[in-house]
Amino acid sequence: MEPEEIAQLRTMYVFTPPDGQSWGLTYEVLAATLRERNPEEFIRIDDGVDGPVTGSSMHFGITLDDEQLEGMALLSPEGVSVMDCTASSAAGFVLWLKADVVPEGIGVTFNTQWGLEDDHPDTPLPDADRPGIVDAFMEHLVETGGLD
Fold first, then answer.
1. Residue 89: phi, psi to the nearest 5?
2. Average pLDDT for consecutive 10-residue bins of the chain (148 residues)?
3. Handedness of CA 55, 58, 59, 65 (dihedral sign)
4. Distance between CA atoms of residues 102 and 20, nearest Å
5. Residue 132 in contact with residue 126, Cβ under 8 Å?
6. Whole-prediction pTM value?
7. Backbone φ/ψ region at 51: left (φ over 0), alpha (ψ -120 to 50), beta
8. Residue of 96, 108, 87 whose CA lies nearest to 13
């Protein structure tokens, strides 16, 4: 598969803090941060069956680079995912996440739906600009997507 074709593949990207670390993520802070960007963004918090934290989830919409994306956040296990997006869209999302949600000095790991299905371990997000992150995501897709 050619790099241009890999760049257009869509999957879910999952972003989490490294093992043993926490972002201190709360739905309230994430919702406020999303609404600072755009007061019209879709946000829904589901309490789940175990109360307001365990089993709960937050679903949201975010518009980046004129593309509307759908995401989900969990407090346990802590993380944020963005659905059905390209490597470039996911890179834009994680750069926003790092700048506006993740506390300074705390890292980010990533995986994809394909990586999770393949029991691929989470990968540390490189300290790179958007093209460097896109390259890391595309390399991950090749490793986990069974692409020829």
1. -65, -40
2. 89 97 95 93 79 72 93 94 96 97 96 94 97 96 78
3. negative
4. 15
5. yes
6. 0.92
7. left
8. 87
